[in-house]
Amino acid sequence: MIIIMKRNASKEAVDHVSNIIRSKGLEVHLSQGQEVTIIGVVGDKSRLADQNLEIAPGVDRIVPVTESYKLANKKFHPQPSAIPVGNTEIGPNTLTIMAGPCAVESEEQLLLIAHEVKKAGATFVRGGAYKPRTSPYSFQGLEEEGLRYMAKAKAETGLNTICEVVSEAAIEAAVKYVDMIQIGARNMQNFQLLKEAGRSGLPVLLKRGLAATIDEWLNAAEYIMSEGNSKVVLCERGIRTFETATRNTLDISAVPVIKAKSHLPIIVDPSHATGVRDYVSPLAKCAVAAGADGLMIEVHNNPACALSDGPQSLTFPQFEVLSDELIPYAKLAERKFR
Ligand code: PEP
Ligand code: MN
Hints:
The chain has 338 residues and is of the alpha/beta class. The protein has two domains: 2-63, Phospho-2-dehydro-3-deoxyheptonate aldolase, domain 1 (Alpha-Beta Plaits, 2-Layer Sandwich), CATH 3.30.70.1140; 83-332, TIM Barrel, CATH 3.20.20.70. The chain is built from ten helices and 14 strands. It has helices at 11-23, 107-119, 144-157, 168-177, 191-200, 214-225, 254-261, 270-274, 277-290, 316-332; strands at 2-5, 27-32, 37-42, 59-63, 83-85, 88-90, 96-100, 124-126, 160-164, 180-183, 204-207, 232-236, 266-268, 294-298. The chain has an eight-stranded parallel β-barrel, surrounded by seven helices. Helix 3 (144-157) packs parallel to helix 4 (168-177). The chain is elongated. It binds phosphoenolpyruvate and manganese (II) ion.
């Protein structure tokens, strides 16, 4: 539940209510808006049944939170969150572009791509070092060696870095090398991994599962946040439908729906959503127009020879054109970009 304080409620009144909640062994999450303070309560609220908090000094009203996710819920935190990562912030007034290869293939490849995407306006370089491939015979990634190249790319370009993690060991390694970890679509409901990601304290990009509802996705975010890590950014990357013309179906409605239900930023990945290079640019623009806080785009120096996801990877000139074309969209959406 949340307790909405009156506009003029004093600090003493807020502390008084918070102390009662804590004394019952429940957690308090304060959201101090410009005018109104909201006290979020996490835990078994029946422990407060005999407290008559409705009539405590400074309390305006009590609203139950019926959704099972609390910390990710907009009711707990009505203002959109800005998530600090590396030298930047994701949401709500910025347009963050993460770009790079599907997989880190070699040091030279990653450094070349990092320099190019930076020139074109990206603020993150992405690259998978642990690849969760559909087939066990496909390239599985360079693992820690790939992470070292990510750190080198950061040192050379100043770009922020993001890498997918697939295990506890991968998280332990990633903490040493990258600014943000990614939980991929296939692991969205790997609850143990979500908890480990929460405990790592690193900012987490949480991709939507292939067949996950928005409710399940926000509950996955809650797993990370309930470990004390509020640095979570969501990523819509397409879901499974009956349509086969594209690799997945981009659920663009997820952007306004997430904005209505959560304070967490949401970015869109049109590369994995479509699997087709030609469809990336129109959907990237669509995502910005719909209110996305950023984009994740696969870019490769030689897509025809890429070890994974070549058909959906943009070439350098294509990424540059897209980035230029995004400028008016970012302006219309009132987002800082380039
Ligand atoms: C990726 O971003 O490299 C990836 C594998 O994406 P997804 O988990 O969305 O399939
Ligand atoms: Mn990929």
